[in-house]
Amino acid sequence: MASKVFIGAGAGFACDRTDAAGPVADTLATLPGGRFLIFETLAERTLAQSQLDRRRDATRGFNPALERFVGPVLARCLRDGIKIIGNFGAANPSAAAARIQAMARAQGLAAPRIGVVDGDDLTALLSPAELAAREIGGAVLRNATEIIAANVYLGAEPIAQALDQGADIVVTGRVADSALALGPLIHAFGWRLDDWDRLAVGTLAGHLLECGSQITGGYFADPPFKNVPGMADLGYPIAEIDPDGSMVITKPAATGGRVDRFTVIEQLLYEIHDPSAYLAPDVVLDITDVTVEEVAPDRVRVTGARGKPAPETLKATVCVDGGVLGEAEISYAGPNAAARARLAAQTIGERMNRRAPGLVLRVDAVGVVSVLGDAAGALARPWASDPGDIRLRFAAQSGSAAEVELMLDEVEALYCAGPAGGAGVRKRLTPRLASASCLIERKFALPRVTLTGGSP
Amino acid sequence: MTARTVRLYEIANARSGDKGNRLNIALICRDPAHYSAIAKHVTAERVAAVFAGRKPSRVVRYDLPKLAAFNFVLDDVLEGGVNASLGLDGHGKSLSYLLLDIPVQIATRHAVATTCDSPVTR
Description:
The complex is a heterodimer of chains A (456) and B (122). Chain A has 456 residues and is α+β, with helices and mostly antiparallel strands. Chain A has helices at 21-29, 46-56, 66-80, 93-106, 128-132, 157-164, 179-189, 196-209, 261-268, 337-355, 401-417, and strands at 5-11, 34-39, 83-86, 114-118, 135-136, 149-152, 169-172, 238-241, 247-250, 278-279, 284-286, 291-296, 299-303, 306-308, 313-333, 361-366, 389-398, 423-441, 448-452. Chain A has 11 helices and 19 strands. The longest helix of chain A has 19 residues, at 337-355. By secondary structure, chain B is α+β, with helices and mostly antiparallel strands. Chain B has a single domain, classed as Alpha-Beta Plaits, CATH 3.30.70. Chain B contains 3 helices and 6 strands. Chain B is elongated and about 45 Å long. Chain B starts with a strand and ends in a 15-residue tail after the last strand.
């Protein structure tokens, strides 16, 4: 059994920085104990996008940045015995494993032993109607006939099993983000799967690490109130965990960022609803008694996580076609810009009312009212100011691409058939995926662990 | 007690997170001395009023005294969430700043902790 475990975060979202893992791996290599580098790269929608990629090409369907994430640290991790765990397998973990093997060959490395975790895909097990019956808090699936992706959040056990079987690298599809850290801890410390307080510690470690730099000064800086030194070189976090569940969060030396009670508490509460019941597949985590204590510069001790028995049901994310989103922008600037922008917005509203009466149109006035506005958009209220440089943004969504394209064309037509000085039109059409959450009975979650390459 | 008015922005930190159409905003006191004033003034009802334009179906405040923090959970305020909203910020990442704009009354004997460098590093 390991005497101490060190878990570093190499990435915290699908589009995260790809040179962040290097300093974390370099630091892990110097530390005595079990060392793990985790990559969390799978947002709610990312998996459905990957499923579409896989339909087009059976060798794809994993995170497109896989090579950029893993390539720079692969040799270092294999040489120093740092295990890599990532959900970058997305919709096709076995293809991701094959790609990692190809990377290893190209780098002249011996074939690593890779554990592939799948069994999260529900599309063969539950029909659209059966999924719809399990949807919570919405009706996205009510009339769905075709499911693009339906994946249940697996827990830490299959990851621990893959590591128990000698995996150097574990590639998963949909697992709970926290399982990426809890799996290694169950493997290294032999924690029982009903030792709720220990599982709570591992789940908390995963929660704190899962967003990468969001605990080391990312999503935080607000100068001069909240200063973050060395933002350009933000260090990504490392959790140090003892067998009894003591935990310290830190980051590599000689990197930017900060780890203190303020950065840790913001991440501790990130995407939390009821703090006494954070639902994970492995345990229900209670953070109401957690305390956060600075023990040295950039070292924070986190204690007090409590666990309650794992929930009966598991969450699944289900995606269906969401039509297309069209966005078009045009600028008005200089004296009286606000009046010209308002006239442009009203004109588009009237033209679209006639040409596509059912289409819901949103208008933002970037620089006046946009992100802090509400769904009614920029025309619903008086504008507080005229900044003299306004970018109007029109948005509409529909199952009919033609209807949305019509809106985009009407905005472009403002060049000539609109107010004076309309400038800089940009148009974009984006396919959309609508997502729903379902609660699934555990009997439908059938995790499978397959080892490839290397030797145990 | 003499009091003065400050914006939350001057005494607290906040962070938004989303799950589907539900938003949470963690609000953290820079100085624990302000915890009770914030608890008194920044109620779930007041936050619901600030977000009224987004028509929350429910607002709950969870208190975390050991962290000198609060967690606000606002249901159905993200225009359908990141996969459905027509707005630019379907995640609601900017919305913590709507909360931080709220004026609150604090006792004048309490200093305003404008910066939040940690005791260990400063």
